[in-house]
Amino acid sequence: MVDLSAGKDGVLPNQHLEKAIADGIISAPGGDIPAANIQPASLDLRLGDVAHRIQCSFLPGTHTVDDRLRELGKYELDLTGEDGAVLEVGLPYVIPLMERLQLPHGMRARANPKSSTGRADVFTRVITDRGPRFDDIQAGYAGRLYLEVVPLSFPIRVRRGLTLNQLRLSVGDAALSDADIKREHAESPLLSVAGKPVNPKNLQLSSGLFLGLNLRGPKGRGVGWRARSSAPLLDLSKSGASDPHLFWDKVAREEGDRIILQPNSFYLLMSHEAVTIPPHLASEMAAYDPTSGELRTHYAGFFDPGFGYNAEQRGAGSTAALEVRAHDVAFMIEHRQPVCKLTFERMIEPPTMLYGEGGLGSNYQGQTETLGKHFKIERDDIPPTPADSRRGMGRLESEQLEFTAAEE
To answer: What is the pTM of this model?
Structure first.
């Protein structure tokens, strides 16, 4: 079994995930787990054979998920055929995953949507038997994993084996405090703008590190995208195949370097700061914060070790795509307004591979475009980078906002 006796706290890196698979902590009955699905600090989870259309979302309570599916299931869709199945906008589905867990008592797990899933506005969360929360899997859990899937903007085509979510394993207390984050930033910058580390005095910390929006750039170029209504079918198994203009409208900045979000519309925007995750850390973007606005600003959250990292270039970093939805009223957001935050955890040890290294299939290292991997990217569609935003770089006096939660 994976050795937990060393007393180290932290997230398991890829070499430990490989041991966890070999020891049966993570398994897939009837088939091996592809090595390509092992990331520096997470494992891609695969869809199983069938999608259950359900009456409503649920937590199992004292029941198994299968018990709830028998109670709330409406019909089933076969995912094993060449064409898979189409999931309709606004309807909830539950899909048993191929992987299952046999966690030791000292090991817990957490799931999150993959970045490409969030950028397609597909809401997902993992459910476990008798689990009291979504995405958090208790230490010692033994059993199957299930994925709730709700397409929010586009109908989607999915197939058996498609990966929409990721799983992290951790032991002990891995979380960094705000003081820890400050020390890490002083040693190796976690945030930078235009290639220069953010002044430590300007870091905005509150149980994590806040990121702001980049809403400044040439007027005709756009600062992001807004999902179109009545869009065509999006095949999530194909990369670079879909015309973005059939699914998205460009978002242009308004006077004052701001935009007004329309209620219940989904936006893809870019962070003002570039993010660097060094090899000994892992990060997650918090789903919302109750001090930050009438928004939800995250649908996908893991940042693996190596994101934006360059050992030879201090303050390199990659900007982060921000998935934003206003709720009941139109809501104004401004350039550099903080709208989300990163939390950080220690790794048990650095991974033997880093995000963005050759052959790993990292899609968003050094990204300058918010659109996900499913869409064709044209040069004229790329929004401004922080280098386009050098003027007016004084510290933002942040307006305090109030988030509302879609879940969790």
So the answer is: 0.88
